[in-house]
Amino acid sequence: MNVKFENISKIFSGRRGTVTALDDISLEIEEGQFVVIQGPSGSGKTTLLQILGGMMRPSRGRVWMGDTDLYAMSVKERARFRARNIGFVFQMFHLIPYLTVEENVMAAAGVESRLTIRKEARDLLDQFGLRDRIYHLPAQLSAGEKQRTAIARAMITQPRMILADEPTGNLDPHNAREVLDLLAKFNRQGGMVILVTHGPVADLRASRWFDIRQGRIEEKLAASQIST
Ligand code: ADP
Ligand code: MG
């Protein structure tokens, strides 16, 4: 499923005036790509991911998910589409504080039997080195463990794509590396990853890199594509 932004703008109007958070962005991302979008705070990264994730209607333009016009769907259809296809990872983890690690992961899954979901949650948490943390609450975890739990939660629905908003922003370099490795692995297995960040991303073999500034996006050429 390719993802396409067609002339997307997002304008916020409020008492303090008007902010053009995204300014006529068009881009197409092919299935299986790992895309990194870098830009300073306030450049429009979170807005872009929220629009991609079906959580915020753009002021102008269309978002295509394959042949589906994301914002032509009803709210209910879009929620269902999102649950089936898209996983989210956030800088601040957004785990539910009163659920255990295992319950946080299970809560993201929906329709299958509890037994199946529990097994899948445990398999993922095993793979992510969290086997002996499944009954812990988020407050009892390190930041790295929280983010790995959040990635397990994003993956339990077997989404086609993961949208990651500054996923390493609160992690030390070692844990940041682990989180990027998990996302890279998801990508090698065929999943699309779109990661936005204001900081540098160490040693990541992404398929494509973009800069975003003041709501405008520009693709950076990979070193191999630059002719000298
Ligand atoms: P980033 O994630 O790159 O820091 P954002 O997408 O959060 O940037 O914000 C882009 C711009 O849009 C900023 O100027 C921000 O203040 C503004 N903005 C974001 N969300 C809202 C909102 N709900 N209402 C008004 N302005 C907003
Ligand atoms: Mg942001």
List keywords for this structure.
binds magnesium ion, four-stranded antiparallel β-sheet, binds adenosine-5'-diphosphate, 29% strand, alpha/beta, 6 helices, 228 residues, Rossmann fold, six-stranded mixed β-sheet, 31% helix, globular
Characterize the structure shown:
It is built from six helices and ten strands, in the order E-E-E-H-E-E-H-E-H-H-H-E-H-E-E-E. The model has no long low-confidence stretch (mean pLDDT 93). Helices cover 31% and strands 29% of the residues. The chain has a six-stranded mixed β-sheet with strand order 6-7-8-3-9-10, with helices on both faces. It is an alpha/beta fold and 228 residues long. The longest helix is centred in the C-terminal third of the chain and has 16 residues, at 173-188. It has helices spanning 45-52, 75-85, 101-108, 114-127, 143-155, 173-188, and strands spanning 3-14, 17-29, 34-38, 60-65, 68-69, 86-90, 161-165, 192-197, 208-213, 216-220. The radius of gyration is 18 Å and the shape is globular. It has a single domain (3-225), classed as P-loop containing nucleotide triphosphate hydrolases (Rossmann fold, 3-Layer(aba) Sandwich). Bound molecules: adenosine-5'-diphosphate and magnesium ion. Residues 45-46, 165 line the site of magnesium ion (MG).
